[in-house]
Amino acid sequence: MLLYNENHNRKEVLWLLTINNLVKHRGKQEILSGVSFKARPGRVTGFLGPNGAGKSSTLRILLGLDRATSGSALINGVPFAELQNPLATVGAALDGFGAHRMRTGRAHLRWIARAAGLSRSRVEEVLEIVDLTKVAGKRVGNYSLGMGRRLGMAAALLGDPKILVLDEPVNGLDPEGIRWIRTFLRERAASGKTVLLSSHLMGELAETVDDVVIINHGKVVAEGTLEEVIGNHATLEEAFFALTSEHAGDAV
Amino acid sequence: MRAFNAELSKLFSLPGMWLAFLIGAFAPAAIAALDSIAEKEEIIAGVSIRLSEVGYIGLGLGVQGIIILGVLAVSSEYLTESSESGGGNQITTSLTVVSSRFHFLLAKAGAVTVTSALLSIVAILATVSATNLILGEYAPAFEASRLIGVVCYWTFTALLAFGITVLTKNGMIPLTVLIINSSVVTVSYLLTKVTKLAFYLPDRAGTDMLMSGGFHTPFTGGLIMFAWVAVLFIIADIVFDRRDVAS
Amino acid sequence: MSVSSRRKITQILGAELDKLITLPLIWFTIMGTFIINLVLTRAFTSAGLQGAAGTQSILNIGLASMGYLQAGFIILGILATCSEYTGGQIRTTLTTIPWRGFQLSAKHLALAIITIPVAFIIAASGVLYAFIMMRDTAVVIEIDIMIKTIAGATGYLTLTTLLSAAIGALLRRTTPALVVLLGYYFIVSPLLRDFLPSSKNYFPDTAGSYMYMPPSSDEINVLTPMQGTGISMLWTLIFITVAIVFYRKRDA
């Protein structure tokens, strides 16, 4: 659809995410019908779509949680399960806390650090980054939605990964948190790292992302830089509705 | 009444409930059938000493299903283990829909009572027909009074499971204690060897409703068990009323 | 085995141990089992004291509560694996450790490491209590038989725990796993012993019971402790294998 500068140096190409013709059936339902896109290093890629469009399913397959019926989702050319050091390569925060309710936040991060051979001081560092140090000794079950999301972010950042995959990162955050995450993600991309985030919140996304992929009914309906996807529409939001409702019309 | 209907529909839409119904309704009949086959020759020869017990063992063990029902009715409000939800507390929704906690608990207990009573009747019918099918004319006569005892025993057990789970909020403890205690060798039976007071435990007193020659008469047995249920319900209501929902 | 993969295994095992140790429910279960076992042993002891003096073996009394005791270990096993599915922790686990077969094996190993000392202490405490209470009345037993029996009980409880963990991993939900396992151990198995006396020695629990039951001569087809251990271990390994196969195949 679009032309990219293919003269990336080697190191940058390493952290490319390639989703290639992904198909997923669950029972008789087809959740993904041939999703393909790329997320490039040095850029924040926004993965947009209405609820149930297949955003989470795609990310779950990318992270090796679910199995694709056909197609592939590769990180630097290999599936997630074949990564040598997954935590230092991909940091992921999916919807929900991703932690057992009865464990403390600190204990949760510590076992992850242990699994990846990271030090305990790194746990304190990420707790500081996401501003959870004060409540790190409390059980996750007592956390608010926003705190739970921060804990998920902390887990994702633990290995200082080259790639960040975030499912609805601003969901449940207060305005301050949203602002923090926006700056934070921009900084990550600026330092040459890859960021892929899914969302259904257009306004938030338009100010954060470089590239946009729009998915609807398990199909990619638009892919390109923010400007290209917006095209002649006034805002990303309008472009989104134009693209998704068009598509819904086709499907009927 | 509306709250009661809501509780009934909540109960029937729980996936674990089908396990409860399966065990409750059909396990007693299956056990009675196996028991009848095993005892058939002796019964026909007229030398079986267990003729009067055939069928009741199955009905005694079928309370497993009812225990699951009572526990799940409450524990489902508190915990969902779905990987998608970060610990969904249905109880918050429930209590905003039915504001009075006492009415909420009452409606729930009512739904449990009705369901378990119906389930016990289904189980009895299945058991009686199974024994009649296998033993034919030799089948023991099921006395109405003992069958009423079975219905009471099942219902009270369900309510005990219900009450304990309100207190613990977690299904594991009541499920473990009650399932083990309705097994072949119960803890309370062991305790009766140590102290006579153990005969006043709810399950000991309750089984006197269905087994002949117990410590209590069937009627007192039922009364003792009912007293336990009533006391437990009062405690559960007080505790439930005082506690913060989310904790 | 290369150095890096050996280090990886240690890290994963450490993480799984961390997870178990920081879960309060595990400790509640262990403490509860310990206390209830002592209460039951006390009941059995006083029942034994009232019975004919001299005919009761301290071992028989001390381990009489085994039947109930195993429930605590069944819960322990279920908690270890089903706790992954609370709060979506499984996603964190699998994005941190995407090698599923490895991960689940490490979890069973970690569980065994915790269970063995706990089972030993609990089994020994029962025997010790019975010994203190009954040393005047009961038959004196030799120390090596006592140690063998307690070791057998420890082995049996550990195998039961691992088997329960495998069932938990298969079913993923606490309540069904609990119902299935308790239903089997406390309802189905005792009934099957009556209906199928010929094959009863081949069930995991009845075979396993020969690991700690003092040899008696009044039964015809008894197993030696070694045969019992073998059969019980075989069941456990079969269930763990099945659990791993399913775990690798399905969506998390």
TrEMBL record, chain B:
Keywords per UniProt: Membrane, Transmembrane, Transmembrane helix
Keyword Transcription part of the UniProt annotation: no
Transmembrane segments: 12-34, 54-74, 109-135, 147-168, 175-199, 219-240
Protein name per the record: ABC transporter permease
Organism, as annotated: Cytobacillus solani
UniProtKB/TrEMBL annotation, chain C:
Coiled-coil spans in chain: none
Keywords linked to the UniProt accession: Membrane, Transmembrane, Transmembrane helix
Membrane-spanning intervals of the chain: 20-41, 61-82, 109-133, 145-171, 178-196, 226-247
The organism's place on the tree of life at top rank: Bacteria
Protein's name in the database: ABC transporter permease
Species this protein is from: Cytobacillus solani
